[in-house]
């Protein structure tokens, strides 16, 4: 089925500039989105999604009100929602395997919407900017094409991506919106400032750093975050990066060195130290089972004891 906007089939284009010229109402929607006030999300209602992760749930979830992700430069944040069931999925996509990832996101929502008698699938795309290497544009076009190939009819509602999410300060291009939240009760999608990247922030970052593919990190039936089990090989050579200066790390470990948030370098070093401290991840997953976390009455995610 085609990707639609305002109930009209979206035609394939070769550049994002051609795309937005053909659908000017999406430009208006993007300007409206990026002008929204930044929402400071409370940790006790947040489910955080890291790079190459997605999470899906429904309005009936008592543990999650907002799914959110941030630190997106060339990466894109993708929200798929069923307007009838309210089932909502958010993903942080970096272009590593877009064609395999998009069907997972659609399935995550449709599987939670099987009882819905009416409604439609709605798509919100945010992220990227006018970066010099055109990494953002490539990902934007790949995501649009991948959603176009799905068998379900999908309606593109928000498209604040690449040049429509770009701002120039001191001659440097940067994203306007780095973080996004979606309220799973109301369906509202908004620019967000997120207070936490947990649970198991370092472990999840290590999984992505070592090449892990897109994974679902939430069991909405049990209302539990699930991490792993993960696999990586010991690599002492990465210790080099702990002594490297900021400029070197940004140059070699970022797709957008001049646009990264201030904590990027420290985040990379913390992740590398975690990998050095855990050269084999086996001990992190007793019996080969994932780490599970559930929401406490105080709003934190606590580890579920292994039986």
Automatic annotation (TrEMBL):
GO molecular function, one term: protein-N-terminal asparagine amidohydrolase activity
A biological process term (GO) from this entry: ubiquitin-dependent protein catabolic process
Pfam families assigned to the protein according to its UniProt record, in alphabetical order: N_Asn_amidohyd (PF14736)
Any one annotated GO CC term: nucleus
Record region (Disordered): 285-307
Protein name: Protein N-terminal asparagine amidohydrolase
């Amino acid at each position: 089925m085609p990707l639609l906007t305002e109930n009209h089939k979206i035609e394939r284009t070769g550049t994002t500039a051609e795309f937005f010229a053909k659908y000017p109402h999406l430009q208006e929607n993007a300007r409206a989105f990026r002008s929204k006030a930044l929402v400071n999300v409370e940790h006790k209602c947040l489910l955080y999604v890291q790079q190459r992760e997605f999470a899906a749930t429904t309005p009936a979830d008592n543990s999650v009100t907002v799914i959110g992700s941030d630190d997106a430069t060339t990466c894109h944040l993708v929200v798929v929602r069923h307007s009838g069931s309210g089932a909502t999925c958010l993903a942080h996509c970096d272009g590593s395997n877009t064609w395999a990832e998009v069907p997972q996101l659609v399935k995550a929502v449709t599987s939670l919407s099987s009882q819905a008698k009416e409604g439609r699938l709605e798509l919100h795309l945010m992220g990227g900017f006018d970066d010099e290497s055109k990494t953002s544009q490539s990902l934007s076009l790949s995501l649009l094409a991948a959603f176009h190939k799905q068998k379900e009819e999908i309606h593109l509602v928000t498209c604040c991506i690449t040049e429509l999410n770009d701002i120039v300060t001191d001659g440097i291009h940067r994203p306007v919106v780095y973080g996004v939240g979606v309220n799973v009760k109301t369906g509202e999608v908004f620019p967000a400032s997120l207070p936490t990247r947990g649970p198991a922030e370092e472990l999840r970052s290590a999984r992505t750093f070592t090449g892990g593919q897109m994974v679902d990190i939430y069991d909405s039936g049990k209302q539990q975050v699930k991490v792993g089990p993960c696999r990586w090989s010991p690599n002492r050579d990465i210790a080099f990066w702990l002594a490297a200066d900021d400029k070197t790390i940004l140059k070699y470990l970022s797709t957008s060195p001049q646009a990264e948030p201030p904590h990027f370098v420290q985040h990379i070093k913390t992740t590398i130290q975690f990998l050095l401290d855990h050269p084999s991840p086996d001990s992190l997953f007793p019996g080969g089972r994932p780490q599970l976390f559930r929401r406490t009455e105080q709003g934190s995610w606590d580890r579920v004891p292994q039986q």
